[in-house]
């Protein structure tokens, strides 16, 4: 493990955080420092500087090598210094290092990010599901290897299920209870969510958030279409198109929610 040393600067050794994500996820790497403690922040990916905050100045991908790798997929929270990588790919696998220099001291934090590759066919199967009204459907969370994290399922913007350590919760608010009426089941070991006796009102976007004190992962999990018996193929196709448009809007919403959560944690 590398420990840096600068003249007149006291050092703190780097803590390494393993982060496991799937292709297509967005992940936010938290700084876990207060805004008034930031000083100078620099982010590196495999020794390439990718972002920096120096006073009021903010820099993202000022080097060509960074631009070639990330192509406008990096976001930097100016208030907290946290770094977000959107639509993550296999080439983003590697070591991300956050360096903070503040009032004569510095600290390092290392994130070891591993990206699980997903084929186009597998991604399509996981993210689009169609069932007939009355059938049951299970939503797969994908690869989840992050320990000590909180898994949260949302239907649109409604929190419907959560796993925290050994504890799990389903439909803790009236809006969820009214919509699903004891039809949800959560697998505590895998994190998968099953909806029984599906209704057309269950159609929509189901998303998964994986949060810890060091990082947040946003995963658009499934666009679910519940088909009412007797509908024509043309009508069904129209429903699917509308739901896919909703999914595109939700990608923007998930990023904004991650930024809001990041700011609240600072």
From TrEMBL:
UniProt-listed PANTHER family: CD48 ANTIGEN-RELATED, LFA-3
UniProt source species: Sinocyclocheilus rhinocerous
Matching SMART domains: IG (SM00409)
InterPro entries: Ig-like_dom (IPR007110), Ig-like_dom_sf (IPR036179), Ig-like_fold (IPR013783), Ig_sub (IPR003599), Ig_V-set (IPR013106)
Top-level lineage group: Eukaryota
Regions crossing the membrane: 235-255
Sorted UniProt keywords: Membrane, Transmembrane, Transmembrane helix
Gene3D superfamilies (alphabetical): Immunoglobulins (2.60.40.10)
Keyword Transmembrane set for record: yes
Domain Ig-like residues, every copy: 7-114
Protein known as: Carcinoembryonic antigen-related cell adhesion molecule 1-like
Organism lineage string: Eukaryota, Metazoa, Chordata, Craniata, Vertebrata
PROSITE patterns: IG_LIKE
UniProt keyword Membrane present: yes
């Amino acid at each position: 493990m590398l420990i840096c040393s600068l003249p007149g600067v006291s050092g703190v050794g780097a803590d390494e955080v393993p982060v496991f994500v799937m292709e297509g996820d967005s992940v936010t790497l938290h700084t876990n420092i207060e805004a008034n403690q930031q000083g100078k922040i620099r982010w590196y990916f495999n020794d390439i500087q990718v972002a920096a905050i120096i006073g009021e100045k903010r820099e993202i991908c000022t080097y060509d090598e960074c631009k070639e790798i990330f192509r406008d997929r990096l976001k930097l929270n100016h208030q907290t210094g946290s770094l977000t990588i959107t639509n993550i790919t296999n080439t983003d696998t590697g070591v991300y290092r956050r360096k903070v220099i503040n009032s004569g001291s510095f600290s390092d934090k290392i994130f070891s990010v591993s990206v699980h590759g997903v084929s186009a066919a597998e991604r399509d199967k996981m993210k689009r599901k169609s069932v007939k009204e009355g059938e049951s459907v299970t939503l797969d969370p994908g690869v989840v290897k992050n320990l000590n994290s909180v898994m949260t399922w949302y239907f649109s913007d409604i929190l419907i299920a959560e796993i925290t350590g050994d504890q799990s919760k389903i439909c803790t608010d009236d809006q969820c209870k009214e919509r699903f009426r004891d039809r949800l089941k959560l697998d505590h070991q895998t994190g998968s969510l099953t909806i029984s006796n599906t209704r057309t009102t269950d159609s929509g976007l189901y998303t998964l958030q994986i949060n810890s004190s060091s990082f947040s992962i946003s995963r658009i999990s499934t666009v679910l279409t519940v088909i009412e018996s007797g509908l024509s193929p043309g009508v069904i196709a129209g429903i699917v198109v509308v739901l896919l448009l909703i999914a595109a809007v939700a990608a923007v919403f998930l990023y904004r929610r991650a930024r809001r959560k990041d700011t609240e944690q600072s």
